[in-house]
Amino acid sequence: MGTIMVLFTLLGGIMLSAQSSVNGTFSRKAGTIEATLLTFITGSIFLAILILFFGEGNVLKILEAPKWQLSAAFLGTLYGLFVITAVPKIGVIATNIAGIVGQLVIGILIDHFGWFNSLIFLFDLKRFFALLFMFVALYFIYTGNKRSSEETYA
């Protein structure tokens, strides 16, 4: 089951990059906020259909959730907006690496301190080097993109 979840996540990452690229291009014509709105309206319709056929829970339980947990929807919307804004300016790979680095930074903090009732995994040397290498990758990808775009316009 773990291997299938890794493959699902890998496919999700592939789809996220493709979606980021398409939305970035679309936002140049329709606008950033408008492209983000289309993404979430379309996603909502798709999920409503999935719930009708495959839903196992109770949508009304949303009303019983602690208010702080509902912030996840707002955070996801902001993430989409930021990605759609960034892709046309710095490219898909730099946007995705920056997003991953951000996820790793907050993930390490969440794991280390056990925030949001998560398991605790202490920050150690392995995690430090993993994070350092991701920052190095972001630096090289971003500066490589900058150089390539300067050469294109020269």
Automatic annotation (TrEMBL):
Look up keyword Transmembrane and say if it applies.
yes
Q: Which residues cross the membrane?
A: 36-56, 68-87, 93-116, 128-145
Superkingdom assignment: Bacteria
| Keywords from the UniProt entry | Membrane, Transmembrane, Transmembrane helix
Task: Note the InterPro entries from the entry.
Answer: YdcZ (IPR006750)
Under Pfam families, the record lists: DMT_YdcZ
Designated name of the protein: Transporter family-2 protein
Can you name the source organism?
Answer: Priestia endophytica DSM 13796
Task: List the taxonomic lineage.
Answer: Bacteria, Bacillati, Bacillota, Bacilli, Bacillales
